[in-house]
Amino acid sequence: MSTNKLDQLYRSVIMDHYKNPRNKGVLSDNNVTIDMNNPTCGDVIHLTLQVEDGVVQDAKFEGEGCSISMASASMMTQLVKGKKTEDAVKYAHLFSDMMLGKDVDDSVDLGDIEALSGVAKFPARIKCATLAWKALEKGVGNESEE
Ligand code: FES
What we know:
Elements: H1 3-19, E1 32-37, E2 44-52, E3 55-64, H2 67-80, H3 85-99, H4 123-145
Antiparallel strand pairs: 1-2, 2-3
Helix pairs in contact: 1-2, 2-4, 3-4
Bound molecules: FE2/S2 (inorganic) cluster.
FE2/S2 (inorganic) cluster (FES) binds at residues 38, 41, 43, 65-66, 68-69, 128, 131.
C-alpha cells in the first residue's frame, strides 16, 4: 500500500474512533479512577477501570480533547479490556516507544493503535496521543501494587 493510501486509512481509523468512541462513559463498578491532564493544552481524561484478579475486566473514559487524544483513549480501552494488568503496562510502554519513533515488536497485534504510529512525526501531538496511556499506566501500576 502506498504511504498516501496508508495515511488515508490511518486518518479514517482515527476519525472513526473520535466520532464513534468505544467505551465512552464512567464505570459504575470501577475500582480504579484516574484523572490526568495534558499540561501543554489543559485537556483532560477521566479513566475508570474495573480490575479484578490482575485482569482489566472493563474500562471506560470521558474527557475533553482533540481528535488524536480521544481516538487514542478509545483505542486504548478497546485494546486493554480483558488483558492482564502486566500486559496492559507492556502495551503502554510499547505505545510510548511507538511515539518515540522506536521500532516495535511487529509480532504484537496492535489492532487499531497502529493508526496512531504517524503521530511520532509530530512532536507537538505526542502528548495528545499518550494522555490516555499515561492514565492507564498510572491506574494499573497503582492497582498491581496493592
Ligand atoms: Fe489537547 Fe490534543 S490538543 S489533548
